[in-house]
Automatic annotation (TrEMBL):
Coiled-coil region(s): none
Species, as recorded: Ureibacillus aquaedulcis
Keyword field: Oxidoreductase
PROSITE patterns assigned: GLFV_DEHYDROGENASE
Keyword Oxidoreductase among record annotations: yes
Complex formation: Homohexamer.
Protein's gene: gdhA
Protein name: Glutamate dehydrogenase
UniProt cross-references to SUPFAM superfamilies, sorted A to Z: Aminoacid dehydrogenase-like, N-terminal domain, NAD(P)-binding Rossmann-fold domains
Amino acid sequence: MTTQITGNKASAETYINGVFEQLKVKNAHQPEFLQAAEEIFLSLTPVFEQHPEYIQHNILSRMVEPDRIISFRVTWQDDYNQVQVNRGYRVQFSNVVGPYKGGLRFHPSVNESIMKFLAFEQVFKNTLTGLPIGGAKGGSDFNPKGKSNSEIMRFCQAFMTELYRHIGADVDVPAGDMGVGAREIGYLFGQYKRIRNAHEAGVLTGKTPGYGGSLVRKEATGYGLVYFVEEMLRDINETFLNKTVVVSGSGNVAIYAIEKAQDLGAKVVACSDSNGYIFDPEGIDLNIVKEIKEVKSDRIQTYVDYRPNATYTEGFQGIWSIPCDIALPCATQNEIDGDSARTLLANGVKVVAEGANMPSNLEAINVFLENGILFGPAKAANAGGVATSALEMAQNSGRYYWTFEEVDEKLQEIMKNIYVKSKEAAFKYGSPGNLVVGSNIAAFVKVADGLITEGVY
Ligand SMILES: NC(=O)C1=CN([C@@H]2O[C@H](COP(=O)(O)OP(=O)(O)OC[C@H]3O[C@@H](n4cnc5c(N)ncnc54)[C@H](O)[C@@H]3O)[C@@H](O)[C@H]2O)C=CC1
Ligand SMILES: O=C(O)CCC(=O)C(=O)O
């Protein structure tokens, strides 16, 4: 089946629906990728109405097909000398705006659909930062849980032994995502250097500060999320001060979102991991969470051993039944469904902003938007991490380091600009206040114009 391109004569909706029907046929077994695409397609009718040239250039069909998908075997030896085999991926989705850029996820759920949805989202997110970075994502179905440090190192070395041939400071620059932090990036970088015999610092970001890494990268996604919400609140003359906040997850994004929200005077009362959630009515003691997660790699359940007034509940979904002013989902995709969204609404939530990638499903997003909840979509609200990665690339190529304050100031400026850009696009294209539509359109137009500028390929 091929799309009929009839230029200005085709209605925007007919074109968009046609491309989506083809996408469903071609990717029938990739629900996460189709969900991410549908969310963007639903925003685009006014763009194609105003820009019939995008139909002539068949921009949408070009944008939903990744430049390439690399899949490879990762063979490594565990601590019992058993040979283990995992599957590795790198989806290089688009380099229209800059070199491919995006994290690596090590999690047993990783498959091609999840890699493609993340890489596709990354194209739009990276464009919104205003920095020259294209979109990619990679990872493996390797499960880091319960693995020794030596096993993690051997896995990372095996992973890089194949990945190295596909990346480069001007080609594709991976970083961390779930299950991949500074330790894993260190092992990956070490192996890259050994193979290439070159200290090409800009080939990976999220490195340890002092060894090529930028200050603030560790904190950047969580801090950036809170800076974005500050902008949303500013528009209604509000601040974080004395707000009750619920944050899901207790990993990199969640911990630093909690830290910054607390800095700004909020009371964060709950967080979670994949087993369950804790509720601390007096406000979470973040030092305990850091000790449990960053030092001991233990379950969040153990928090209640330190804080007698806190409670632990099995099951991660229940966290959304805790009344709050601001909800920050920072764990994983599809963690908020329609029912959870309605519960949040009934309990008086005012703002929902996404630290994780695609944490709200389409039904949940509609519940928020239709009921006037201020909603910050992931590709805008969590772009602070990748933006700071781009700042790390800039420092690496300039061969110097900025101070914590310098990077933090740039991050705040970037998050503010993303907010303004998304808000203005929403207004211009007829959906004032809708940051889903605004962020999708602002990014789409930039990539679409790039595709036209750079010619058909
Ligand atoms: N690390 C980064 O810079 C960025 C991460 N993200 C997204 O943020 C999310 C979290 O990533 P990180 O914090 O980096 O990962 P991480 O590996 O540091 O932490 C993930 C946390 O989520 C918990 N978790 C997993 N599934 C869960 C569930 N169903 N319910 C509750 N908790 C659950 C885990 O126990 C862990 O505490 C992911 O969606 C990731 O793609 C987005 C932008 C940048
Ligand atoms: O810093 C990066 O390159 C990647 C961050 C990331 O994976 C994300 O934004 O989802």
